[in-house]
Amino acid sequence: xxxxxxxxxxxxxxxxxxxxxxxxxxxxxxxxxxxxxxxxxxxxxxxxxxxxxxxxxxxxxxxxxxxxxxxxxxxxxxxxxxxxxxxxxxxxxxxxxxxxxxxxxxxxxxxxxxxxxxxxxxxxxxxxxxxxxxxxxxxxxxxxxxxxxxxxxxxxxxxxxxxxxxxxxxxxxxxxxxxxxxxxxxxxxxxxxxxxxxxxxxxxxxxxxxxxxxxxxxxxxxxxxxxxxxxxxxxxxxxxxxxxxxxxxxxxxxxxxxxxxxxxxxxxxxxxxxxxxxxxxxxxxxxxxxxxxxxxxxxxxxxxxxxxxxxxxxxxxxxxxxxxxxxxxxxxxxxxxxxxxxxxxxxxxxxxxxxxxxxxxxxxxxxxxxxxxxxxxxxxxxxxxxxxxxxxxxxxxxxxxxxxxxxxxxxxxxxxxxxxxxxxxx
Length: 426
Fold this sequence. Notes:
Elements: H1 3-9, E1 10-12, E2 24-29, E3 42-57, H2 65-73, E4 81-95, H3 101-119, E5 126-133, H4 141-153, H5 159-165, E6 174-181, E7 191-199, E8 212-217, H6 223-236, E9 252-257, H7 274-296, E10 304-312, H8 315-327, H9 329-336, H10 342-350, E11 362-365, E12 368-372, E13 375-376, H11 381-387, E14 392-398, E15 404-411, H12 415-422
Parallel strand pairs: 4-5, 8-9, 10-14
Antiparallel strand pairs: 1-6, 2-3, 3-4, 3-9, 6-7, 7-8, 10-15, 11-12, 11-14, 12-13
């Protein structure tokens, strides 16, 4: 697809989010999971009808009870991702319901049952997610008291409150939406939308998903196809970000497809078709925007950092090199200190496991070449300091070993990260 065609086909929905797609309502309230009555802590996203659902989840062995519950409901308890049908997603913040044993498992099932009762559907059509402190029993009273209230508040305008309700150490809510025309792919008169919300600020280096994300679309997509698209897109968006190299126990990304923007009886998008291609591009746009928003809001962060590695021997080498640079505390603190210390980048590359010769490596910071052929290049330190004032920082590496390339997104590491996490429970 050409750039001109893409610009005409796709449109970003300003202020859009998880209810931008047709067929969905949402709400967010304070239910009592948090002590602060001014903090929203319960979110609910509901489809008008049962619809296609898919999820990708953390690969952390210490995974939380709601992760296990969702895998069970979607029919693939031991697999990386799963799919089926669902009507609703309920998310609480303030308590992860992780490392809580059988009581935590029962709490996840009860949360689904109470949600189903509140909205009028079978409990196996409800998916559950939690985020917050690990190892603390999940109270059920906030569900009992909050769900009847939140069910009454469900609306197509409720996405913003839902996005705020899933926040933990986030400083801002994270929403995105994108629409595309069906005119050229056999769906004349139709415009389809992908929207979503996410939370994540710390304990971010997703493995199969992100901290918590709910994605919706009104495109007609079958459950298995939705899962396959979600997995591919998660790998190039959520799985390409890192704040602190920690993978959560609760990583959950759920996608719902209502098909509500298609004419009654219209055939679902078929994988490999032009319509499915447009859908996957839109899904990628939304997930990438949410992923970058998480990094931009990383705990204590002041900079979004793009780490691009080109000239790698293989894709796995490119990822390993970029990920090692992106996770390096020395690189991240140098960025926080506005120090173009390329030696830290070179050292990270050298221990990444990627195969290359140091004599072939070129490195640029902020568009300024600082290393060529593995050796230092003189550069203008004052100009580098000036460029460090930008909110977005670029690190570009060419390993000179092949044609593979990738980009990861990370952030700087400041004193505030220690303060936030040192005080997280207290």
